[in-house]
Fold this sequence. Notes:
9 helices, binds guanosine-5'-triphosphate
Amino acid sequence: MEMIRKFKPLMKSVSKVRILMIGPVGAGKSSFFNSINSIFMGRMTSKAMSGSAGTSVTTQYRTYQGKDGPERKPLPFVLCDTMGVEEQSGAGLNIEDINSILQGQVPDRYKFNPTAPFKPDDQKASRPASLQEKIHCVVYVIDATKISLMSDKLEEKLASIRSQINSLAIPQIALMTKVDETCPHVQKDLQSLYASSYIKSKVQEVSSRLGVPVSCVLPVKNYSQELELNCDVLLLSALQQMLRFADDYLDDDPM
Ligand SMILES: Nc1nc2c(ncn2[C@@H]2O[C@H](COP(=O)(O)OP(=O)(O)OP(=O)(O)O)[C@@H](O)[C@H]2O)c(=O)[nH]1
Ligand SMILES: [Mg+2]
């Protein structure tokens, strides 16, 4: 927590890094923000609506500034939450919106429209967003229990999202959620995750399905029902990795 609090991007013009979460419906994007927020607040929080429904629970674009403790001191990151990706075209997050989000044109609380892409208002569009407002790291949030069931169509959609992001050279990480639900040993004792060959095989599966290196697949368990905080290390080290990746990107002077 201390390392995250003290983190300062190398580039002076950027005071906090913006991390974009993308992933299938119900993968745990909103829960990841809630989990990080809970850790820094020292109690369970559920600011971002999460849950399960046939389609995405998150319908608005939200940019959540990280906040520390009861004084709510701003932390050096913003987590950006999106609507879930669905396999059919015309449903879920509109792929065309991703570019507008990456460029920092989409405002907080924009209501997603799966059938029509975001249109910036003309005045704003004429002025390109500053580097501070753009996305510095993308996180694919993938449910470990569903990776084997992912349809070819969804995989193709994610691949086209990924090639769009690759072309902008924005660093990408995969967050593999719900590791507690994949295996009873891990559910009982989260530390057994490091020794689990089953988890290892899931990490490899996420890596090959998404085309991100194995070293960039980070297993986590979000807070979903706990009354106590107890899975911080995985969550915080995932966030720390995101900050480092964003910093590498900024260090490369993307303008
Ligand atoms: N057991 C377990 N449940 C989780 C985990 N992460 C999320 N969940 C649960 O999964 C469900 C969906 O989580 P959300 O955070 O709403 O998922 P989302 O990706 O934001 O989904 P949409 O906004 O609908 O696209 C919720 O009921 C969460 O409590 C996890 O790591 N472990
Ligand atoms: Mg959500």
